[in-house]
Amino acid sequence: MTYSFSNSASTGHEQLDLLASLLDGKTQGHIEALDLPEAAQCWIPGAGSGTIARWLAERDPQGLVLATDIDPKIDEPLPKNLIIEVHDLTTDPYRTGWDLIAIRLVLCHLPQRQQILQQMAAALKPGGWLLIEDWGWSAPPSAYAAPTPADAALFDTMSDANLTQLQDRGADPAWAESLQQHMDQHLTDVQGWRYDERWEGGSPGCRLHAINLAQHRERLLADGITADELDRAAALLTDPALRTYAYALHACAGRRPPL
């Protein structure tokens, strides 16, 4: 699987925690809006630290939750109805018969995203739901306030450079923006949400920016970004005087037609 970030990096655990703090509330709200049956069979691919999988397992103790990832980092103890497995969406077979498949910030990174969407839709039970959440960045995040104009320009440069690293490894910045049209091809009752937010230095969003830059540091240096620029960007991302637009979060849920 092609993926730009590593759960096993020194910053991997913090990166997953920040994503959970930024997004879990929205994901939980989307799932609660779906008419899932009792004792639902749920699959969470790309589960990362497993916060959503654990929440689902505790929410429905009679159900079953399978959390998969190429490198799962889910702490024990686990609920009895939560199963953890290593799984690669691009190469491994898919189990079928799911009431819910929920995947977050994975497909935008994978060149095989269309095929994976189709395979996940086919893995649902009749009437089962697929929830996909992804960030879009066809307009990269930019600073609208900063300590100095040079700092604003530096943030914008780092944002563009970081996203270039993702695109070079197969990510699609516009995928999320057309997510609903893609899901309409395979599912029914498709519904969508979009969130546009702003982050300030020191917030979970800006701390996530800093971790992403740190994980890409060697590749950014090879592409001509200087160590001084990266170090200044890391400091800037802790400064509350920095205010930035966030990635736009796009979410869609659709169901396999009932029999």
Strand content: 15-25%
Total number of β-strand segments? 10
| The CATH C-level class name | Alpha Beta
Tally the helices: what do you get?
8
How much helix is in the residues? 25-40%
Unreliable runs: none
Query: How would you sum up the global shape?
Result: elongated
Provide the succession of SSEs.
HEHEEEHEEHHEEHHHEE
The side-by-side strand order for the widest beta sheet comes to 3-2-1-4-5-10-7
Helix vs. strand class: alpha/beta
Mean pLDDT level: 94
CATH 4th-level superfamily: Vaccinia Virus protein VP39
Instruction: Please name the CATH topology.
Output: Rossmann fold
* CA(first)-CA(last) distance: 34 Å
Q: How would a textbook summarize the main sheet?
A: 7 strands, mixed
The radius of gyration computed from the alpha-carbon positions, rounded to a whole number of angstroms, is 19 Å
What is the domain total for the residues? 1
The CATH architecture would be 3-Layer(aba) Sandwich
How would you describe what is shown here?
The chain is of the alpha/beta class and 259 residues long. The chain has a single domain, classed as Vaccinia Virus protein VP39 (Rossmann fold). The chain has eight helices and ten strands. The strands form two sheets. It has a seven-stranded mixed sheet. Helix 2 links the parallel strand 1 and strand 2. The two termini are 34 Å apart. The model has no long low-confidence stretch (mean pLDDT 94). This is Methyltransferase type 12 domain-containing protein. It comes from Mangrovactinospora gilvigrisea.
